[in-house]
Amino acid sequence: MWEYEYSVETAAAPDALWRIWSDMDAWPQWNDGIAKIEVEGPFAVGTAFTMTPPQGDAIPMRLVEIVPGRVFTDEMDAGDFLVTTVHRLEPLPGGGTRVTYRTEITGAAADQVGPELGPQITADFPDVLAALVRRAEG
C-alpha cells in the first residue's frame, strides 16, 4: 500500500467548501490539475466521471462515498491496483475548517506502482487546496 495525506486550515465554513466540491462541472475552474471533466450524473455515490489532466490521458473514476458537508471519496480502479482519494472537512473549534485530501493506492500492484504514481497524483495537493480555500474565502 502507498499513502499520502495533506491538510490545510481555512476560515471558510464547511458548507462553503462543500458547495465548491459538489459542483463537479466547475472543478476545472479552480483545480489546475483538471483540464476537462465529464460527469455522468449527480454528485452522488455511484456517479462515474472522467477527469483529463492538462498533459495526459482521461482518467475514469467513480464517487464511492459521500457524507454531505463532511466527506466524499472517489476511486480509480486500474484492475491490479486501486487509487482512493478521501476529501474531508473538519470544523475547527472557534470557526473555520480543516480540509484534508488523503490518497491510498492498494491492490496487488500497489507496491510496484505506488512509489511512482502516488507522488504524481498528489504533487499538486498543496496548490489544489490553496485554490479551493481562496475560492471558498472569496
UniProtKB/TrEMBL annotation:
This is Polyketide cyclase. It comes from the Bacteria. The lineage of its organism: Bacteria, Bacillati, Actinomycetota, Actinomycetes, Streptosporangiales. SUPFAM superfamilies: Bet v1-like (SSF55961).
